[in-house]
Amino acid sequence: MKNTFDTGIEIQPVMNPMGFIYGDEVFGPQAELRRLDDIRHSLMDPRCDGPDVVYAIAMDVGKRHHRQLLHEMHLLYGVVTYAAGRLGREPVRSQGHIHKVSPHCGWSTPEVYEIRSGKAIIYMQESDGDDPGRCFAVEAHPGDTVIVPPGWTHATISASPDEPLTFGAWCDRDYGFVYDGVRRHNGIAWFPVYNGQNELEWLANPAYRPSELTVKPPGSYEALGIRRGTPIYTLFEDRPDTFRFVSNPQLKKDVWENFIP
Questions:
Q1: Hey, how many other C-beta atoms are within 10 angstroms of the C-beta on 217?
Q2: Distance between terminal CA atoms of the chain?
Q3: Prior bond to 240 cis, omega within 30?
């Protein structure tokens, strides 16, 4: 596959059936499938056509000799691959959620994304309430890292309709997704749609109070120890403590104040 970033761990996405093939030294579960009917209620047009299987997700993947360390650090690595195509006028995307409060740290935990192939937009808003707060659409390409801060609503969007999108992410091992706020507003605060020139544009969701959307490339995450261009799994191998903030975000409390992704 062209424009593929070497993530430092042997995981190969496959499309028929959608899922993953793991290398000999890699453990991982059978992928869970998310179908179009599962996410219709959060789309701009719930009756739209699109691929039946929208994406496949495998949580708790890693190199076999890291299994114990991952448990000790309360870390989990996941991989996701999206189908090519569109959901009506919208790109293939997730429905949007906020992370549940983790019982071991008392925080809604952050997430560290890394794009393997395709083009992604990591959309995020500060709140799933009526006032979404600051809203960002972070455009990311293979090799880019994007961090969603604690407590923010977010959705992952494929901006490459002619090819699949695949990405990996570091999460807290007690991960859980809360959809209530997004579903109550029939989606995220800004809907991505293709216009007549096949360009992505953003339409405000009228179920929220008015807000502004900032479209931008990924920021610099040096304050969190992230090295640009180094695969996030390789960085974990080299310096595991780098990612302690994922399961213990209070360690970087100062970084999260006025965070810009």
A1: 10
A2: 28
A3: no
Chain position carrying tokens 């969701």: 205
Which alpha helices (DSSP H) does the chain contain, by range? Answer: 36-39, 67-72, 180-184, 232-238, 244-247, 253-256
Q: Which residues contact 190 (CB under 8 A, 6 or more apart)?
A: 123, 125, 135, 137, 202, 203, 204, 205, 211, 213
Tell me whether strands 135-140 and 213-216 are parallel, antiparallel or unpaired: parallel
Q: Return the pLDDT at 63.
A: 98
Specify the residue for token string 């056509």: 49
* Tokens describing residue 193: 């749609």
Q: Give me the pLDDT at residue 2, please.
A: 59
Number of residues assigned to the chain:
261
pLDDT number for residue 249: 98
User: Block means of pLDDT (10 residues each) for the chain, length 261 residues?
Assistant: 87 95 98 95 93 96 98 98 96 95 96 98 98 98 98 96 96 94 96 92 97 97 93 97 98 96 95
